[in-house]
């Protein structure tokens, strides 16, 4: 059950089990993640540690102690000249979808990217995920690429679209 008070906050290690449950549901039931096998808690722990070690945010939508969704960003590419570009991820538990949670989780990512002097925010979205496409477009993301048949899941080829949001940040001295 969803109460009216959902708090978006920084994730903690004790949120990882709920984050894992949401992520594995997305893997098993959707094309939002181009993976076929559920992740383990150790995989999520490694992912979380990597985010924290690189000063990247991980946010959760907390519904009275139950995690309704999570969002994060990380390296778009690991090479130094991409350091002002990040790739975002937003996932919401199946029973919480359609309630505006993804908007809140994406907004805090964009705000944090601005604070971190990020210049370009990228979202990779399966072409069949119109809900996510609409969400990102509502924040000003523009489609910049469409890769044909680069994924294969559920017995069919999947196209991957890249969307980009440009922030008005300028790199400082190195």
What would you note in describing this structure?
β6 and β7 form a beta hairpin. The chain starts with 6 loop residues before the first strand and ends in an 8-residue tail after the last strand. The model has no long low-confidence stretch (mean pLDDT 95). It is globular, with a radius of gyration of 16 Å. The longest helix has 15 residues, at 101-115. It has 174 residues and is α+β, with helices and mostly antiparallel strands. The protein is 29% helix and 33% strand. α1 (16-29) packs across α2 (41-53). Strands 1-2-3-4-5-7-6 form a seven-stranded mixed β-sheet, sandwiched between helices. The protein has helices at residues 16-29, 41-53, 101-115, 130-138, and strands spanning 7-10, 58-63, 66-75, 85-92, 120-126, 142-153, 156-166. It is built from four helices and seven strands, in the order βααβββαβαββ. 27% of the residues are buried.
